Amino acid sequence: MAFKELLERFKKGLVKTAQLFNVRSWFGRKIDQDFLNELEAKLIQADVGVKSTAKVVDRVREAFADKTAGDDLVAFVKEEFITLLADPRPGTLIVSPTKPTVYLIAGVNGAGKTTSIAKLAQRLKNEGKSILLAACDTFRAAAADQLTIWAERSGSDIVKGAPGADPASVAHDACDRALARGVDVLIVDTAGRLHTQSHLMRELEKVRGVVARKIPGAPHESLLVLDATNGQNAIRQAEVFTKSIGCTGVILTKLDGTAKGGVVVAIRQSLNLPVKFIGIGEAIDDLQPFDAELFVEGLFS
Ligand SMILES: Nc1nc2c(ncn2[C@@H]2O[C@H](COP(=O)(O)OP(=O)(O)OP(=O)(O)O)[C@@H](O)[C@H]2O)c(=O)[nH]1
Ligand SMILES: [Mg+2]
Fold this sequence. Notes:
Layout: H1 3-13, H2 15-21, H3 33-45, H4 50-64, H5 71-85, E1 101-106, H6 113-126, E2 131-136, H7 141-154, E3 157-160, H8 167-181, E4 185-190, H9 198-214, E5 221-227, H10 233-245, E6 249-253, H11 263-271, E7 275-279, E8 287-289, H12 292-299
Parallel strand pairs: 1-4, 1-5, 2-3, 2-4, 5-6, 6-7
Antiparallel strand pairs: 7-8
This protein binds guanosine-5'-triphosphate and magnesium ion.
């Protein structure tokens, strides 16, 4: 996708948070305590997090006290956000030197795991890779059907078990097939579970364990899918999932549906986990690699 087109997509997907910030309303205002209080309230409301909010507001106060807000203030705030989001690890997925590369996908109920897998499969397919999906969500009867439809659309292969089957056994079979057929990427879908349900967290650990035993170095990424509309609650989920399966990155979905887009900053700052992809809509190409500059442009447009 061309840069301009991508920028438009980010803008469209982040419009709710951008409306909250509403930078146009800043122009011409005096940067006094009232202005700073308002800025602080909006950053908190956008779930940027208390610490990062304080940092940005302090920096604005130091640089702009009693000046008039204009383009230079907007550029300054954007720079502050880019600094907060800076990550030495690029937002790309690890690729194993030997086939298959395995991505394990986890998260709470309804976070957007299965649809994100569909979007990711399509993206990898477009790059010329062969994909096998493992339907390890055997909990919901409709889950395997949902993944099957997506697999057909993207031309991916799928392994599923009987309803109620042990997810670890499905993972086992999927690894066997991925190895036998020499597929490039195996993506493992898992059932939604609350981070507070310890037996279900153990089940997830078991799936991870099977994958790790069958395929050296796997899972090469354990991606946690977080729903941006959960805002700061997502942080707690991430802490528990990371402890359980050692998450390597986050897919942050539903940014298009929320003014809590600032949660990207909170995730980066408090979890030391890279946001690898963001979901900014329901269309198949609405899962985009996270790009700090495009993201910040979207927030403050
Ligand atoms: N607007 C919007 N909707 C999304 C996005 N990502 C996912 N969704 C929607 O969120 C809903 C739940 O998505 P699923 O992929 O089924 O979620 P899941 O995590 O697999 O759910 P369980 O398997 O039940 O735990 C669906 O209606 C998706 O279309 C996004 O980036 N933007
Ligand atoms: Mg699902």
